[in-house]
C-alpha cells in the first residue's frame, strides 16, 4: 500500500520526468491541432474558408498591439476563472460554480462600494476592502458546494451549477429591485462607481490590473499546490481518497478550503469586471467567463501556471470574435462551436496518456 | 381573495403540466442512461439543440411533428458521440457531459440564428377543460399531446426495465459491469445504446420547449432544465414512474413566478425564478444520504460513488 502514485514516483527520475512533461504538453497541443482540423472541415462544409478564419483569429487576437491588448484584457478574468476550476480539480472535485461566484462577487463589490463612496472614503482603503469582500462572498458561495459534498454527500458538479443559477437569479432580483439605480433606464444596473473608484489600466496599455492579479495568483497557487504540505495533501486526496483518509489527512477541510480558494478567485474576477470594466453591476456580469474557465483549466491540465497561456489563447479567440463575425458573416456562436469541439477532442486525448510508446519509460507500465 | 388563490392554484396546475413536460422527457432519458451505469450531464445540450432543430424543421416543412422527430434524431446523434467517447479508457464521463453541454448549445446557437425571427407552426394542444365554464380551468387543462406521450413512455420504460430481458440486461450492466461481461453482454454496446436513446428523449423535450411552451426559438430558451432533470432522477430514485411525480413537482415550482404574476404580484418575480434551482438543491441535500436512494442507485454510477 503506497500513497505515492506512479506519476509522483516518475518525478524522482529525471528522464521520466521530462517524458511526463513532454507528454503533458504534446498531447493537449495535438488535441488542439485535431480540433482545428475538425473545425476546418466544419467550415468547409458550410462553404467558408478555414485559412481565412484562422488568419482573422491571428489578426484580431495577436497581430497588432491593439489586438494583443484586447486579448490580454479578455484573458484576465479567464485566468482567474481557470484557476477557480483547476484548484479543486486537483483534489478531484469538478466544480462549475465559478460563474456564480464571479457574478455574486462583482455584485457585492458594486453595492458595498457605494456607501463607502458616499461616506467619502479614500479608494486606497476602500478598494482593497471591497476586493476582500468580493473574494469572501465568492469563497463562501463555492465553499458551500464543497461543504455539501463532504458533509452531505451531494454531488458537487450539479450543486455548484445550481448555485450558479441561484446566484444569477439573486443578482437579477436585487439589481431589478432594492439596488436599482433609478437612473438606469435601459438596463437595470446598480449605482455607477465614481471615477476615482474605477481601477485604471496598467500604464502604457489598455489592459486593466486584473491581469496582474491573475498572474500573481497563478504563481501563488502554483507554490501552494506544488510546494506546500497543503498542495501535497490535496493532490494525494485527489489521487486516492481512501489512501488519504487512511493517512489521516483532513480530507474534508482540504476539499472545502480548495473550493473556497476557487470561489475567491472567481469573486476577484467579478470585482475587476465591476471596478475596471463595467463600473456597475448588471446582467452583463454573467458573460460566461466562468464556463470558459472550465475549458481553460482542462487544456492547462489543471496546472495553475499553464492556465495563464491557455487563458490568453481563449482570450484571443474571444477578442477576434467580432472581426470574424463582420468579415466572414458568421454568427457570434462560431466561437462557441469551436470551443465545444476543442473541449471534446481534449477529453478524447485523455485516453492517450501513458499509452503512447514514445513517452514510455521503464516504469510507466504500472500506470493504470 | 379566494378568487385570487383559485387563479394562482389553477395557473400552477396548468403551469405544472406545461413546464414539467421537458423535465419529464429529459429525466426519463437520463434514467435509462443511468440505469446502465453511465451518467450523461450533457442533456442540457440535447435540450437546446433539440429545441432549435425542432423549430427549424417545423418552419421549413410546416409539420411540427416532423420537428419533434428531427429533434429526437439530433439528440440521439449528440448522445451517441457522448456514449462513444465515454467507452474510451481513462475518460471521465462527467467532464464529457460538460463538453457536450457546450457543444450542443454552441451548435444550436450557430445554426439557430436565422430562426429567431420567423414563426414556425407549433404543436396543438388538446382541450380537456371544455366541461367547465371557468376560463382559468379551461386554460389550465389545455394539455399538449407530448405530455401524454411522456406519461405513456414512463409506464413503458418502467415495465421494460422491470420485466423484460432488455431491462434485466440494462440493470445488470448498471449494477455490475463485471457480471454483465461474464454473462457475455457487451457493456460498451449496452451503454452506447442507452445513452443514445436517452439523448433521443431529451431532444424531444427540447422540441416541446420551442414548439409548445414557451413556443418559440431563442437563445435563452433553456436555463438549466436539462441539468435539473439529472438531479431529479436521483430524487426519483431511478424509477420512471416516480420521475412523473418529480417532474410535476418541478413544473409547479417553475410555474410559481408566472402564476403570481398573473394576478398582479410581480414583486420578486426574479426571485421566484430561482425557486426551481433552490428546490433542486434542497432535494439533493435531502436525498443524497438517504438509505432508499442509495439502495436504488445503480452501483456502477460515478455520481453516487
Automatic annotation (TrEMBL), chain A:
<feature type="transmembrane region" description="Helical">
    <location>
        <begin position="160"/>
        <end position="179"/>
    </location>
</feature>
<keyword id="KW-0812">Transmembrane</keyword>
<dbReference type="GO" id="GO:0022857">
    <property type="term" value="F:transmembrane transporter activity"/>
</dbReference>
<feature type="transmembrane region" description="Helical">
    <location>
        <begin position="305"/>
        <end position="324"/>
    </location>
</feature>
<keyword id="KW-1003">Cell membrane</keyword>
<feature type="transmembrane region" description="Helical">
    <location>
        <begin position="127"/>
        <end position="148"/>
    </location>
</feature>
<feature type="transmembrane region" description="Helical">
    <location>
        <begin position="21"/>
        <end position="46"/>
    </location>
</feature>
<feature type="transmembrane region" description="Helical">
    <location>
        <begin position="254"/>
        <end position="277"/>
    </location>
</feature>
<keyword id="KW-1133">Transmembrane helix</keyword>
<dbReference type="Pfam" id="PF02653">
    <property type="entry name" value="BPD_transp_2"/>
</dbReference>
<dbReference type="GO" id="GO:0005886">
    <property type="term" value="C:plasma membrane"/>
</dbReference>
<feature type="transmembrane region" description="Helical">
    <location>
        <begin position="100"/>
        <end position="121"/>
    </location>
</feature>
<protein>
    <submittedName>
        <fullName>Nucleoside ABC transporter membrane protein</fullName>
    </submittedName>
</protein>
<feature type="transmembrane region" description="Helical">
    <location>
        <begin position="207"/>
        <end position="225"/>
    </location>
</feature>
<feature type="transmembrane region" description="Helical">
    <location>
        <begin position="336"/>
        <end position="353"/>
    </location>
</feature>
<keyword id="KW-0472">Membrane</keyword>
<dbReference type="InterPro" id="IPR001851">
    <property type="entry name" value="ABC_transp_permease"/>
</dbReference>
From TrEMBL, chain B:
<dbReference type="Pfam" id="PF02653">
    <property type="entry name" value="BPD_transp_2"/>
</dbReference>
<keyword id="KW-0812">Transmembrane</keyword>
<dbReference type="GO" id="GO:0005886">
    <property type="term" value="C:plasma membrane"/>
</dbReference>
<feature type="transmembrane region" description="Helical">
    <location>
        <begin position="94"/>
        <end position="112"/>
    </location>
</feature>
<keyword id="KW-1133">Transmembrane helix</keyword>
<feature type="transmembrane region" description="Helical">
    <location>
        <begin position="190"/>
        <end position="214"/>
    </location>
</feature>
<feature type="transmembrane region" description="Helical">
    <location>
        <begin position="220"/>
        <end position="236"/>
    </location>
</feature>
<protein>
    <submittedName>
        <fullName>Nucleoside ABC transporter membrane protein</fullName>
    </submittedName>
</protein>
<keyword id="KW-0472">Membrane</keyword>
<feature type="transmembrane region" description="Helical">
    <location>
        <begin position="269"/>
        <end position="288"/>
    </location>
</feature>
<feature type="transmembrane region" description="Helical">
    <location>
        <begin position="6"/>
        <end position="29"/>
    </location>
</feature>
<dbReference type="GO" id="GO:0022857">
    <property type="term" value="F:transmembrane transporter activity"/>
</dbReference>
<keyword id="KW-1003">Cell membrane</keyword>
<feature type="transmembrane region" description="Helical">
    <location>
        <begin position="243"/>
        <end position="263"/>
    </location>
</feature>
<feature type="transmembrane region" description="Helical">
    <location>
        <begin position="41"/>
        <end position="59"/>
    </location>
</feature>
<dbReference type="InterPro" id="IPR001851">
    <property type="entry name" value="ABC_transp_permease"/>
</dbReference>
<feature type="transmembrane region" description="Helical">
    <location>
        <begin position="65"/>
        <end position="85"/>
    </location>
</feature>
<feature type="transmembrane region" description="Helical">
    <location>
        <begin position="141"/>
        <end position="161"/>
    </location>
</feature>
Amino acid at each position: 500500500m503506497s500513497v505515492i502514485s506512479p506519476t509522483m514516483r516518475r518525478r524522482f527520475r529525471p528522464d521520466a520526468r521530462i517524458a511526463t512533461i513532454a507528454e503533458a504538453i504534446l498531447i493537449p497541443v495535438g488535441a488542439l491541432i485535431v480540433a482545428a482540423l475538425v473545425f476546418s472541415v466544419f467550415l468547409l462544409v458550410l462553404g467558408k474558408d478555414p485559412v481565412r478564419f484562422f488568419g482573422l483569429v491571428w489578426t484580431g487576437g495577436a497581430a497588432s498591439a491593439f489586438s494583443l491588448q484586447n486579448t490580454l484584457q479578455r484573458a484576465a478574468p479567464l485566468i482567474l476563472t481557470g484557476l477557480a476550476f483547476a484548484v479543486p480539480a486537483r483534489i478531484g472535485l469538478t466544480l462549475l460554480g465559478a460563474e456564480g461566484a464571479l457574478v455574486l462577487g462583482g455584485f457585492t463589490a458594486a453595492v458595498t462600494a457605494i456607501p463607502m463612496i458616499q461616506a467619502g472614503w479614500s479608494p486606497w482603503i476602500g478598494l482593497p476592502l471591497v476586493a476582500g469582500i468580493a473574494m469572501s462572498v465568492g469563497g463562501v458561495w463555492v465553499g458551500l458546494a464543497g461543504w455539501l459534498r463532504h458533509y452531505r454527500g451531494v454531488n458537487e458538479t450539479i450543486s455548484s451549477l445550481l448555485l450558479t443559477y441561484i446566484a444569477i437569479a439573486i443578482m437579477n432580483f436585487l439589481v431589478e429591485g432594492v439596488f436599482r439605480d433609478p437612473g438606469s433606464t435601459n438596463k437595470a444596473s446598480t449605482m455607477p462607481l465614481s471615477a476615482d473608484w474605477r481601477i485604471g489600466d496598467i500604464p502604457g496599455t489598455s489592459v486593466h490590473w486584473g491581469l496582474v492579479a491573475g498572474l500573481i495568483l497563478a504563481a501563488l497557487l502554483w507554490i501552494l499546490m506544488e510546494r506546500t504540505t497543503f498542495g501535497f495533501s490535496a493532490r494525494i486526496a485527489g489521487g486516492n481518497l481512501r489512501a488519504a483518509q487512511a493517512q489521516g489527512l483532513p480530507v474534508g477541510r482540504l476539499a472545502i478550503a480548495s473550493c473556497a480558494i476557487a470561489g475567491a478567485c472567481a469573486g476577484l474576477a467579478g470585482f475587476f469586471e465591476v471596478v475596471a470594466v463595467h463600473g456597475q453591476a448588471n446582467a452583463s456580469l454573467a458573460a460566461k467567463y466562468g464556463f470558459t474557465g472550465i475549458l481553460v483549466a482542462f487544456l492547462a491540465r489543471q496546472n495553475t501556471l499553464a492556465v495563464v497561456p491557455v487563458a490568453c489563447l481563449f482570450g484571443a479567440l474571444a477578442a477576434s470574435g467580432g472581426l470574424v463575425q463582420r468579415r466572414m458573416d458568421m454568427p457570434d456562436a462560431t466561437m462557441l462551436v469551436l470551443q465545444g469541439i476543442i473541449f471534446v477532442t481534449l477529453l478524447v486525448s485523455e485516453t492517450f496518456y501513458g499509452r503512447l510508446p514514445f513517452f514510455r519509460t521503464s516504469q510507466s507500465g504500472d500506470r493504470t | 381573495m379566494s378568487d385570487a388563490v383559485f387563479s394562482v392554484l389553477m395557473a400552477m396546475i396548468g403551469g405544472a403540466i406545461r413546464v414539467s413536460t421537458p423535465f419529464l422527457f429529459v429525466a426519463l432519458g437520463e434514467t435509462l442512461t443511468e440505469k446502465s451505469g453511465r451518467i450523461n450531464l450533457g442533456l442540457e445540450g440535447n435540450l437546446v439543440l433539440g429545441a432549435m432543430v425542432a423549430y427549424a424543421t417545423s418552419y421549413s416543412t410546416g409539420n411540427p411533428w416532423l420537428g419533434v422527430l428531427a429533434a429526437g434524431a439530433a439528440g440521439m446523434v449528440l448522445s451517441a458521440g457522448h456514449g462513444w467517447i465515454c467507452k474510451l479508457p481513462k475518460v471521465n464521463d462527467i467532464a464529457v457531459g460538460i463538453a457536450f453541454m457546450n457543444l450542443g448549445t454552441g451548435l444550436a446557437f450557430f445554426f439557430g440564428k436565422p430562426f429567431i425571427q420567423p414563426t414556425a407552426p407549433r404543436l396543438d394542444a388538446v382541450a380537456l377543460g371544455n366541461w367547465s365554464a371557468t376560463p382559468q380551468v379551461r386554460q389550465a387543462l389545455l394539455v399538449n399531446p407530448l405530455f401524454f406521450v411522456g406519461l405513456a413512455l414512463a409506464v413503458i420504460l418502467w415495465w421494460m426495465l422491470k420485466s423484460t430481458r432488455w431491462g434485466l440486461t440494462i440493470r445488470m450492466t448498471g449494477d455490475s459491469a463485471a457480471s454483465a461481461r461474464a454473462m457475455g453482454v457487451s457493456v460498451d454496446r449496452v451503454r452506447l445504446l442507452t445513452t443514445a436513446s436517452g439523448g433521443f428523449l431529451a431532444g424531444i423535450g427540447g422540441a416541446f420547449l420551442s414548439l409548445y411552451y414557451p413556443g418559440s426559438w431563442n437563445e435563452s430558451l433553456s436555463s438549466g432544465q436539462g441539468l435539473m432533470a439529472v438531479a431529479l432522477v436521483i430524487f426519483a430514485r431511478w424509477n420512471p414512474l416516480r420521475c412523473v411525480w418529480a417532474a410535476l413537482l418541478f413544473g409547479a415550482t417553475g410555474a410559481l413566478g408566472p402564476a403570481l404574476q398573473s394576478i398582479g404580484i410581480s414583486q420578486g418575480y426574479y426571485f421566484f425564478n430561482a425557486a426551481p434551482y433552490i428546490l433542486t438543491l434542497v432535494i439533493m441535500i435531502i436525498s443524497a444520504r438517504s438509505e432508499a436512494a442509495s439502495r436504488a442507485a445503480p452501483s456502477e454510477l460515478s455520481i453516487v460513488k
